[in-house]
Amino acid sequence: MIVLADGVLTALRMHAEKAYPEECCGILLGTLQDDTRLVIEARALDNTSPEPRRRRYWIGPEEYRAAESAANSRGWQLLGFYHSHPDHPARPSAYDLAHALPWHSYVILGVEGGRAGEWTAWVLAADRSRFEPEAQREEARWRIEC
Amino acid sequence: MAHRVLIPTALRPFTRMQAAVEVEGPSLGELLQALVRAYPELRPHLYADDGRLRSYVNVYVNEDDFRALQREETPLAPGDVVSLVPAIAGGMR
User: Which residues, in sequence order, are CB contacts of B38 under 8 Å at separation 6+?
Assistant: First the structure.
């Protein structure tokens, strides 16, 4: 299961809406306990895809390495990545599948007419044949306590 | 001659969660082949069905991108460290 700590989903939605009509992208950092991935921090990255950014995103190897370092320095893990699908369902595409890494979580946000909507989470199947939906939850506990 | 290979987070489940492994290979290509022989579950994530390295796989010898060297033919010297670093690509269609 992937759990977004309070504030993370808001940050993702704001980024997706700001980037619209282009796709946004970023990294998800946090902790792993048993089978639960708790995303504590989302870091927005520039979409540097050389292809049309309305339908493509790219996070380069330097950013991946920096993300691992950022996670390690705080005792966290690089849990995964997020990106948006402007005016398109929040479902992984064949292109997403062909380029997917194992283990990491892939969060997709749908953006309709500039407004962020549904979010979904996915993990690559062991045989690379498909994405499997990941159980997901937004953690609102801290907001309620405050 | 064994070389240190740094494994990214995404691939550590296939190297028994090791962030670095030691693999022998006189050239980069031979080292990578030895790596997937030692850790067979890595193969489908490093290599496409046509036997080529997947497009998202970036390989560095020390700090140098293997594409700026001699790619898989790059000879390895004692002490060289090889890093596997993925790029992330995707999009809605």
Answer: B21, B23
